[in-house]
């Protein structure tokens, strides 16, 4: 049986780079196909295709653009909508704030892992590159598992639909934010899931993808601008909270900081005290698990810069500066924003506010106004749009790397950066197709968040494998991972262990027998999220084992030139029986 041949990383070619007269470096974890000069030999010989991927300086990101790429991806609609569910699960002001701090600490621990990988392997691709460095056998298994999870669910559906929903609230009128009961919450969602809602979402993701594909510099500027806007919006929330703490607000102070739990009840009355199955949510261990998942979701996206490191100037140095700046800013503002919410709203008000706690917060401090009914939904729409810009910039870069590897059907097309090598247009199209398919193919609004949760859960398993893999690299001398290098960042093993344990808790808790954890698809999400890994294994069996059995064998190498550009060499071998005549290790 023939199978794809993979090369160790890196391999120095025997050929000289004609421009500099030095050995070229082959990076085997990349590969694909493309256009360019080719040589077709006789049967049994190789067909070589070459494709140059050039990253011009004007396309590369500096420190602040990289920081805003992370900030813009992390700060979406989460911080403006999830606080209501978190206080409902904890029923404690102090516990809620501690969870937001814990989420920041876990994010920094995970960031340390990605900083070590990113500074050691400053290539675009993120988890794909790191998994291939750690898990080299069986060949391509880690790549296929990651490819299935990332291609299917690393999309911008939730952000696009959120933008559309908030925009409709702005244009057609937001619900009466002076009420926090169930009727107001139902009115707030009456536009969601309609064809008008979906149409605006499709138009938004289409415009964003076209800008990133054909006007990439404009896309970066718009992304940075929306990042600055979200920073100002969060600062506005924090300052308004300080005003409320000083007593400058329309209503009475809720006095939430008079005790650890705070006065009042965030679980509602009657049937609202349970999860619908007779189980009390607030304050239980399972309720804390749900709260932590919501917090980690709000911090999600901190790894965004690792996906595009080939397009970052002096990537190791820039990443070490930009990532901590972005995540440090997010953590401080998240904690202060939640303090602001509690300074103006009772626990019951915040718990019942649904997806519009920020609008109700401003109403409690400033009183009812057009600002809370019209302007705030517009602000939240722009915040969600910024998230879409950040996702649609970074995620296609990873998908292009997967296409270069040859692991996708029609890889030659998806790896293309037609027409002017300005951006990965083929991968952007792939990103657009799956995003639009999920927007149009979902009959209810709950499906969007449901699929996002599947991506989060399966992504947590990928991160667990990376954390364990980094520990293996650091404690296995034969891997030569800890060789001192000037630009490499080293994570403390204790931070890695803490991060892995925290992720395992969120991954394993749903499978522990507990009636509470069967609520609202919660048991379905981890089952499907874990199932994505199994589907990846099946895809690997087909691509790396079954296809070579029918005589299809590929090889691919990437020549990394001194200027940082890549020359991808894709070879399709026609074997004459037995093992192909391709070059081996």
Automatic annotation (TrEMBL):
Annotated Gene3D superfamilies: Amino acid/polyamine transporter I (1.20.1740.10)
Cell location: Membrane
TM regions (residue ranges): 61-81, 93-115, 140-168, 195-215, 227-247, 281-300, 321-344, 426-444, 450-473, 494-512, 524-543
Name the UniProt record assigns to this protein: Amino acid transporter
Keywords, in A-Z order: Membrane, Transmembrane, Transmembrane helix
InterPro entries linked: AA/rel_permease1, AminoAcid_Transporter
Keyword NADP: no
Region called Disordered, residue ranges: 1-20, 27-46, 252-276
GO molecular function: L-amino acid transmembrane transporter activity
Keyword Mitochondrion: no
Main location: membrane
Gene Ontology cellular component annotations, sorted alphabetically: membrane
Membrane topology, as annotated: Multi-pass membrane protein
Organism: Neurospora hispaniola
Tree of life domain: Eukaryota
């Amino acid at each position: 049986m023939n199978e794809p041949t993979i090369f160790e990383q890196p391999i120095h070619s025997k050929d000289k780079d004609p421009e500099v007269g030095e050995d070229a470096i082959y990076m085997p974890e990349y590969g694909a196909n493309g256009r360019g000069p080719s040589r077709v030999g006789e049967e049994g010989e190789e067909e070589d295709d070459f494709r140059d991927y050039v990253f011009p300086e004007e396309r590369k990101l500096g420190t602040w653009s990289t920081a805003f790429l992370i900030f813009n991806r992390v700060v979406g609609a989460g911080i403006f909508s999830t606080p209501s569910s978190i206080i409902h699960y904890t029923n404690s002001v102090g516990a809620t704030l501690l969870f937001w701090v814990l989420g920041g600490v876990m994010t920094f621990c995970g960031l340390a892992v990605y900083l070590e990988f990113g500074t050691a392997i400053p290539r675009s691709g993120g988890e794909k590159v790191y998994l291939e460095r750690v898990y080299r056998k069986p060949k391509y298994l880690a790549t296929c598992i990651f490819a299935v999870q990332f291609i299917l669910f690393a999309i911008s559906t939730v952000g696009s639909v959120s933008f559309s929903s908030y925009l409709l609230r702005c244009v057609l009128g937001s619900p009466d934010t002076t009420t926090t009961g169930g009727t107001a919450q139902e009115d707030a969602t009456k536009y969601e899931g309609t064809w008008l809602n979906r149409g605006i979402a499709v138009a938004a993701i289409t415009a964003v993808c076209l800008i990133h594909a054909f006007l990439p510099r404009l896309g970066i500027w718009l992304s940075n601008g929306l990042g600055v806007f979200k920073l100002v919006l969060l600062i506005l929330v924090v300052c308004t909270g300080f005003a409320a703490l000083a007593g400058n607000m329309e209503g009475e102070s809720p006095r939430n900081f008079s005790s650890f739990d705070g006065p009042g009840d965030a679980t509602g009355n009657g049937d609202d005290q349970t999860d619908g199955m007779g189980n009390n949510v607030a304050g239980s261990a399972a309720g804390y698990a749900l709260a932590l998942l919501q917090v980690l979701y709000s911090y999600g996206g901190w790894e965004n810069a690792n996906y595009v490191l080939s397009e970052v100037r002096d990537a190791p140095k820039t990443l070490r500066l930009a990532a901590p700046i972005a995540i440090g800013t997010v953590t401080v503002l998240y904690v202060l924003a939640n303090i602001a919410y509690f300074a103006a709203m009772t626990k019951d008000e915040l718990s019942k506010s649904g997806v519009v706690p920020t609008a109700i917060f401003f109403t409690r401090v400033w009183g009812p106004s057009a600002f809370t009914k019209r302007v705030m939904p517009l602000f939240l729409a722009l915040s969600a749009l910024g998230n879409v810009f950040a996702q649609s910039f970074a995620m296609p870069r990873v998908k292009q790397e997967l296409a270069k590897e040859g692991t996708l059907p029609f890889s030659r097309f998806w790896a293309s950066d037609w027409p002017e090598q300005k951006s990965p247009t083929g991968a952007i199209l792939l990103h657009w197709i799956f995003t639009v398919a999920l927007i149009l193919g979902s009959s209810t609004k709950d499906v969007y968040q449901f699929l996002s949760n599947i991506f989060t859960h399966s992504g947590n398993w990928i991160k667990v494998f990376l954390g364990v893999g980094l520990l293996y690299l650091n404690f296995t001398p034969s891997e030569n991972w800890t060789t001192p290098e000037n630009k490499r960042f080293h994570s403390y093993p204790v931070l890695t262990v803490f991060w892995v344990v925290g992720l395992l808790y969120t991954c394993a808790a749903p499978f522990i027998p507990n009636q509470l954890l069967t609520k609202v698809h919660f048991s379905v999400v981890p089952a499907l999220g874990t199932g994505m890994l199994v589907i990846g294994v099946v895809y690997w069996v087909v691509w790396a084992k079954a296809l070579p059995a029918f005589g299809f064998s590929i090889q691919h190498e990437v020549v990394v030139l001194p200027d940082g550009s890549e020359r991808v060499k894709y070879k399709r071998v026609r074997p004459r029986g037995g093992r192909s005549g391709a070059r081996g290790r």
